[in-house]
Amino acid sequence: ETGVTQTPRHLVMGMTNKKSLKCEQHLGHNAMYWYKQSAKKPLELMFVYNFKEQTENNSVPSRFSPECPNSSHLFLHLHTLQPEDSALYLCASSHPQGSYGYTFGSGTRLTVV
Amino acid sequence: GDSVTQMEGPVTLSEEAFLTINCTYTATGYPSLFWYVQYPGEGLQLLLKATKADDKGSNKGFEATYRKETTSFHLEKGSVQVSDSAVYFCALSYETSGSRLTFGEGTQLTVNP
Predict the structure, then answer these.
(1) In angstroms, what is the C-alpha Rg of chain B?
(2) Burial of B27 per CB tally in 10 Å (0-12, 13-18, 19+)
(3) For residue B102, with 0-12 CB atoms within 10 Å meaning exposed, 13-18 middle and 19 or more buried, which class applies?
(4) Given CB atoms, is B65 within the 8 Å cutoff of chain A?
(5) With an 8 Å Cβ cutoff, are A98 and B44 in contact?
(6) Residues 80 through 109 of chain B touching chain A, CB cutoff 8 Å
(7) Can you tell me whether residue A84 is helix, strand or coil?
(8) pLDDT (tens digit, 9 = 90+) per residue, A19-57?
(9) Which end of chain A is less crowded, N or C, counting CB atoms within 10 A of the terminal residue's CB?
């Protein structure tokens, strides 16, 4: 247990489905992140939230919709995904000050069929 | 912009062999440097870090020294175990609020018995 909990661990969804990924931390961190990790590709930063405000969206398609209701919870809402969206989705949290590093969750393995 | 370059993998070693994974960085300032490890099916875990030049980070038998003169942060372990098989990521970040982690592409390590 790293302190950042992601659910579900595995998800299979059809291209017409709507699903949500959940991330929760009680480390007192104020920054939260969504990353996408695909096979044989570098880690891709998708979204950043600082104190519940989205501060970064790295040209992510609108079929991915983040939500951060408070500093402890982060969601990624998914709809009409494509097979190429199949990947490991990682959530992380940190203090706003970068030198402390990030704490990552175990990820959600998403398969789009 | 800032960047991190890791030696290409995969790296395959026999148990008890000496490990070096090279990491060099390009930075506009004076970043903190990190090594993260990702075991199969898991998220990334912070392995060690160093916050200023000549600092040595260490954990679980792994070491890395922040070398400003060569802009490097090579990961070493004197005697690897099968359980060290994982993907290793080098990264940098700054102390300033809102600083992002910049990751290298990761190096797959496989240790055979």
Answers:
(1) 14
(2) middle
(3) buried
(4) no
(5) no
(6) 89, 91, 93-101, 103, 105-106
(7) helix
(8) 999 999 989 998 999 999 998 788 999 999 988 788 877
(9) N
